[in-house]
């Protein structure tokens, strides 16, 4: 006797095969196209330590000739000979040990941008460590406490050194975080100032105007490449972690106004997903979003940079630029996976009784008529530290009455931006547009020491728009 379950099974198997073929595959069932991210591949450092919770690497700052412009050799300043430098990838709570050697013709240091690590690992010369002289070494050794998209770069003569190519990504994952669809792609956007022979321009090119405006490079680079190609398949999501590693340039980025589902930023996941159609990325800032390839199979498109209004003359007579080829391969479209909307619980900092400070971001001239920027009218060389106590919550009013925007960065601590309707997100870098006020709340955990804060237009930082905070127990 035939039982009812067998009967049901037979009837399913007897469905016309054309019906099976028409059902689109889900994104989870297919892979990215072969070699989809080949042009954007990052250098992976060798782990010298057998402990799975310790990443121990050698890192060398070294000048290497590279072909940035076709047929021209550029002496790029690199970490381990690659541009960007090696991708450091860890899980929350892992320990990182970096045996750093300086083979540059100049002193340097490494700042671990956004990481809440002990003060003596923060990489600020004459404040948290001595500069690493040419031929010298320093070992960085710390535990990474937070998931997120971070980066590392020098904190000595940083406008020049970052502009010459010293920058690299650092990503910390939390295995317990909600699953975000899409294959990970880490993109460092930057630029470089080259002359027509491919040589690096003088770091102080443009003189006083360069100091005021900041120095934007002549070529835009995506993971060190001019116009790389990224392959995708319609509907098959990619999770992009984007980092602005340029010394001055703002990146407003979009792809045909396609939706970009932002799931996180500087300090890891946001509290919930926010969907936008363009990303504005100020120097040193990061976002983490799901990109759903929108184009029909067998289509080519261009991912573009748009000028951002960051003050006087910044958009005048400037056009959008193509910065990356988007190749949608000739494979059937797939159905995207849903992006979770609730991502993480973030509690708003309690600002009742918080200590309040106002930081005026200021531009002036010194007695020799050189541009002199500062905080509250004081150039960093003359600045006394702000005094602060471990455990204290503070509210900072960042006031910008100048004609230029300033991306404000706090070392070592995350903050929350007040008065925004965006989902809560821990940040360490925030734009303070020209003629505006931004308020942030910070809470100082138990990591006493000297902590810098500054404009991350590195040309502005170099002419004085920096300060420091002396955090005591
Ligand atoms: Cu600035």
Offer a quick outline of the entry:
This protein has helices at 4-13, 17-22, 158-163, 207-213, 458-462, and strands at 54-66, 74-79, 88-91, 95-102, 111-113, 137-143, 148-153, 168-173, 183-192, 219-222, 229-232, 238-244, 251-254, 260-265, 268-276, 279-281, 286-291, 299-306, 321-328, 355-365, 371-375, 386-389, 393-400, 406-410, 415-417, 429-432, 436-443, 449-455, 466-472. It is mostly beta strands. The chain folds into three domains: 38-173, Cupredoxins -  blue copper proteins (Immunoglobulin-like, Sandwich), CATH 2.60.40; 183-328, Sandwich (Immunoglobulin-like); 355-472, Cupredoxins -  blue copper proteins (Immunoglobulin-like).
Helix content: under 10%
> Major β-sheet, in short?
6 strands, mixed
Spell out which ligands are present: copper (II) ion
Structural class assignment: mainly beta
CATH architectural grouping of the largest domain: Sandwich
Could you describe the 3D structure shown?
This protein is mainly beta and 473 residues long. It folds into three domains: 38-173, Cupredoxins -  blue copper proteins (Immunoglobulin-like, Sandwich), CATH 2.60.40; 183-328, Cupredoxins -  blue copper proteins (Immunoglobulin-like, Sandwich); 355-472, Immunoglobulin-like (Sandwich). It has five helices and 29 strands. The chain has helices at residues 4-13, 17-22, 158-163, 207-213, 458-462; strands at 54-66, 74-79, 88-91, 95-102, 111-113, 137-143, 148-153, 168-173, 183-192, 219-222, 229-232, 238-244, 251-254, 260-265, 268-276, 279-281, 286-291, 299-306, 321-328, 355-365, 371-375, 386-389, 393-400, 406-410, 415-417, 429-432, 436-443, 449-455, 466-472. Strands 10-9-12-17-14-15 form a six-stranded mixed β-sheet, with no helix packed on it. A five-stranded mixed β-sheet has the order 11-19-18-13-16, with no helix packed on it. Strands 21-20-23-27-25 form a five-stranded mixed β-sheet, with helices on one face. The radius of gyration is 24 Å and the shape is globular. The model has no long low-confidence stretch (mean pLDDT 95). The structure holds copper (II) ion. Copper (II) ion binds at residues 406, 455, 457, 460, 465. Residues 406, 455, 457, 460, 465 line the site of copper (II) ion.
């Amino acid at each position: 006797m035939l039982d009812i379950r067998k009967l049901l099974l037979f009837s399913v198997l007897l469905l016309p095969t054309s019906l099976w073929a028409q059902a689109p595959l889900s994104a989870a069932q297919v892979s990215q196209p072969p070699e989809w991210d080949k042009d954007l591949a990052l250098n992976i450092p060798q782990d010298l330590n057998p402990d799975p919770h310790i990443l121990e690497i050698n890192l060398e700052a070294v000048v290497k000739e590279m072909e940035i412009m076709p047929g021209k050799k550029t002496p790029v300043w690199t970490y381990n000979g690659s541009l960007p430098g090696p991708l450091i990838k860890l899980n929350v709570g892992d320990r990182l040990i970096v045996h750093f050697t300086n083979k540059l013709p100049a002193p340097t240091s490494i700042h671990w941008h956004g990481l809440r690590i002990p003060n003596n690992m923060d990489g600020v010369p004459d404040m948290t460590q001595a500069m690493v002289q040419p031929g010298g070494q320093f070992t960085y050794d710390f535990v990474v406490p937070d998931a997120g998209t971070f980066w590392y770069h020098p904190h000595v003569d940083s406008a020049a050194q970052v502009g010459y190519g010293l920058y690299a990504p650092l990503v910390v994952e939390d295995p317990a975080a909600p699953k975000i669809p899409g294959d990970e792609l880490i993109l460092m956007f930057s630029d470089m100032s080259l002359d027509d022979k491919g040589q690096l321009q003088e770091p102080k090119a443009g003189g006083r105007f360069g100091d005021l405006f900041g120095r934007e490079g002549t070529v835009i680079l995506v993971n060190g490449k001019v116009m790389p190609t990224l392959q995708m398949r319609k509907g098959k999501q990619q999770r992009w972690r984007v980092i602005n590693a340029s010394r001055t340039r703002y990146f407003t980025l979009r792809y045909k106004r396609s939706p970009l589902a932002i799931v996180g930023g500087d300090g890891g996941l946001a509290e919930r997903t926010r969907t936008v159609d363009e990303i504005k990325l100020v120097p040193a800032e990061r976002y983490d979003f799901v990109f759903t390839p929108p184009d029909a199979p067998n289509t080519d498109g261009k991912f573009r940079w748009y000028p951002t209004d960051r003050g006087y003359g910044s958009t005048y007579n400037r056009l959008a630029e193509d910065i990356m080829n988007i190749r949608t391969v000739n494979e059937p479209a797939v159905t995207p996976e849903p992006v979770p909307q609730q991502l993480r619980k973030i509690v708003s900092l309690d600002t009742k009784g918080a200590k309040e400070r106002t930081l005026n971001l200021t531009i002036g001239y010194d007695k020799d008529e050189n541009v002199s920027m500062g905080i509250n009218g004081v150039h960093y060389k003359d600045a006394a530290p702000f005094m602060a106590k471990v455990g204290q919550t503070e509210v900072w009013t960042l006031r910008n009455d100048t004609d230029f925007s300033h991306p404000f960065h706090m070392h070592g601590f995350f903050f929350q931006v007040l008065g925004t309707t965006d989902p809560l997100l821990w940040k360490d870098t925030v734009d303070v547009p020209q003629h505006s006020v931004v308020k942030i709340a910070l809470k100082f955990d138990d990591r006493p020491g000297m902590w810098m804060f500054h404009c991350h237009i590195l040309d502005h930082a170099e002419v004085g728009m920096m300060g420091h905070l002396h955090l005591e127990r």
